[in-house]
Amino acid sequence: MSQQLQRAVITGGAGFLGSHLCDRFLAEGWEVVCMDNLITGDLRNIEHLSGNPRFHFFHQDVTEFIHVPGSVDAVLHFASPASPLDYLELPIQTLKVGALGTHKALGLAREKGARFLLASTSECYGDPLVHPQREDYWGNVNPVGPRGVYDEAKRFAEAMTMAYHRYHKLRTRIVRIFNTYGPRMRLNDGRALPAFMSQALRGEPITVFGDGSQTRSFCYVDDLVEGIYRLLHSDEAYPVNIGNPNEMTIKEFAERITRLVGSNSSIIYQELPVDDPKQRRPDISKAKRLLGWEPRFDLDTGLARTLSYFRERLDAPLRGPRV
Ligand code: NAD
């Protein structure tokens, strides 16, 4: 670990992952500026931080000019719709935040001489032809399919980040995040875990896309946050996968959740969305080697923690505020 950093700007800080990052940086003694336009985020994710004098919330669209008074040591760019339902509903905003938002966030880091960390995604690998996915695989993405708005926005964001690194000598980091779950996911965001858990809790049938044989690998949020914290402090400018290599089929995942909830929901099958990846598993040897990182939470522990959050939230309003 190199120098001690003090003040972080976290874009998308009122979202699922961003709010956990705010918690972690505050716990490490940092001051945190959380910047979010609440398009898919939720103020309830950060309301517990409102009395903290080291926490500041800026209600701001990061595709517009960003001004932050004072010094900044790190900019973590997490703003972006992230669930397929969200980015299919918000295609232009998704492209804008990946392109213009990344440019503005990089500009802020450059102005302040701060480190920059981009939240990229395993979606950069598209429907992968190489398995498991290593960082040097360039991916199999359909740019003109419906998912292209997200995948290509992130691929552009990575290219822009590397350009700032090479041309402006900015200290940049890129994390390729694989499916992550945990408390503060929105119940109705369309991702597999919230969908399965809320259906099981309500005793409704579990909707699985396709025949459920497509695979995913699910990482608990605390493990992801630890990997990101270590990556920020490292010297690696090229992308690093952070995810849990424990791969399973979506059908197995649905059954695991149903058992955990103690529900007798049946599984119903729906048409597979266009360009849905058939398999997904991170090769995490780079993160192990460079960061000494690997996931610590097993699926049962992570799911149990998430389930207690979902039980509490089930009766609360489903959507966060939208502006
Ligand atoms: P999320 O939707 O909960 O959080 C995204 C946040 O960004 C929201 O609070 C939203 O309001 C905010 N935002 C969006 N556009 C904005 C804009 N123009 N200006 C300011 N704020 C804006 O999603 P998440 O799961 O927490 O994802 C966070 C980041 O991590 C995203 O960049 C996503 O692509 C990446 N990621 C997440 C996963 C995952 O499994 N959760 C996997 C891969 C990558």
What characteristics describe this protein?
single chain; 323 residues; alpha/beta; Rossmann fold; 7-stranded parallel β-sheet; two-stranded parallel ribbon; disordered C terminus; binds nicotinamide-adenine-dinucleotide
Per DSSP, the total helix count is: 9
Shape summary: globular
Strand line-up of the largest beta sheet: 3-2-1-4-5-6-11
Uncertain runs are 317-323
Number of strands: 13
Biggest sheet details: 7 strands, parallel
Structural category is alpha/beta
CATH superfamily of the domain at 7-181 and 220-242: NAD(P)-binding Rossmann-like Domain
At CATH level 3, the topology of the domain at 7-181 and 220-242 is Rossmann fold
Helix fraction, binned, reads 25-40%
Give the distinct bound molecules: nicotinamide-adenine-dinucleotide
Proportion of residues in extended strands? 15-25%
Radius of gyration: 19 Å
